[in-house]
Amino acid sequence: MTYLLSSLAVFFAVIAAFTPSLPALIPCIGLLPLYRLRLFRPALIITAWALAIAAFITSPSSFVALLFVLLLSIPTIILEPQRIFVSLDDPKHVPPSQANLREEALVLGFEEDGYAAAWPLETLAPRHLINDQVGDTPLLVAY
After folding, report:
1. Do 103 and 50 lie in a common domain?
2. pLDDT tens digits for 10-50?
3. Model-level pTM greater than 0.70?
4. Domain extent at residue 49
5. Beta 137-142 vs 115-120: how paired, if at all?
């Protein structure tokens, strides 16, 4: 019984800890699972803690499961989608001459109906998402 409790505790902690990594590991699933599972992650980690504590009370030799749950609780707190995907909303547009970019800087650009905008990859990389509007076209730029 203690082995089952310990195994379930570690299983739930692993699921809670690594759910935000799923889109990186399996890109075809998209970002939707992150937002659907964000409500379940606290429940999963609380369940993992309860099972690990129950296993430890039943058999103190199962402290390893308690250590695993403790270690897996850290990514559960740190890897929140809201912390990973912080969007830049309505960035300031400046003419190219005032952009202060290096000559070899890489940009991602958009042009439509005479309106154009470009976002440096240096800005996109830490943010991953930019909500912008170019002319009358609202854009979500993802990198």
Report:
1. no
2. 888 888 877 766 666 666 666 666 666 667 778 888 888 89
3. no
4. 2-81
5. unpaired
